[in-house]
Amino acid sequence: MTEQRLGGVLAPITTPFDGVTGDLSPVHHKRNVSRLLADGLDGIVVAGSTGEAPLLTPDEQRRLVARTREALTDGKWLLAGTGAESTRQTVALTRAAAEMGAHAALVRPPGYFAAACSPASLAGHFRAVADASPIPILVYNVPKYTHLALAPGLLQQLVGHPNIVGVKDSSGDVKTLAAYREAAPQWAVFVGSGSLLYAALELGCDGGMVAVACYMARRCVELVVAFRAGDRATAGALQEKLGPLDKEIVGKLGPAGVKAAMDAVGLYGGPVRPPLAPLSAADQKRVAKLVAA
Question: In total, how many domains does the chain have?
């Protein structure tokens, strides 16, 4: 599986919790995965930002990977978010994800001591994780949550490592995305913002790991298919429809918004895990209206 080029549209799937106990709901998870893959996605990402990764226990992350692997169909990718605050814990989570069947790991930088992280120490962190990982890793830039923006120069320091194969950029900044593509020409470069999926393809990126694909998977896939077929008009029209669904739901409401949108299209979103707050009734109605339109 990992011999083929990583690309296309992957959904950074939400983590479904039981509405009564707050525990993981493996039945709902497998149903969500199966339906999203049937809509044409190239793969699934578990335990990412949209999956409320910092609120999961290591055991829950292991079980998420295992349950996803059980539901995976041939030729589809399974990535696991394995970033943690220490290099040691990141290595442990990455090894566990590999053991449970993940094809690759998505590794965010540690954020708690962001001010104390130098470019050299960050490069050392990613190299150490890649050295110890049984599966390839992708670097994950998500400054909204880590409060640490990864410079394109950092990627240039890492491109020679045989076990670092890509990067996901969730900065929402097209200039950063372009700089990443230029800095790591041999890597798989993914955009993390659904609003920039078309722009990413124009820049020569390999695809998107976009939360809007959790409830608009088919539309995201259609956009990429149209673009690759040279039908820029159709791809552009689809991007215009996806933009508001990304900005208003993912951008403004986060995991709770994505879960509400999944509920609205017949998937299982369910509750977020405290301390994240549920959506107000007004926001739930607005999400349902946006998705229906």
Answer: 1
What is the CATH number for 188? 3.20.20.70
Structure tokens at 200: 């990413």
Question: How far apart are the C-alpha atoms of 96 and 65, rounded to whole Å?
Answer: 9
CA torsion angle for 264, 266, 269, 270 (degrees, to 10)? Answer: 90
Domain extent, residue 63, equals 8-241+267-274
In a domain, 123, yes or no: yes
| Burial of 179 per CB tally in 10 Å (0-12, 13-18, 19+) | middle
Active site residue 168: yes
| Given 76, 144, 168, 175, the catalytic residue | 168
Q: Which tens digit of pLDDT belongs to each residue from 212-240?
A: 999 999 999 999 999 999 999 999 999 99
- Give the span between the Cα atoms of 114 and 267, in whole angstroms: 36
Total-model pTM: 0.97
Residue 235: inside a domain, yes or no?
A: yes
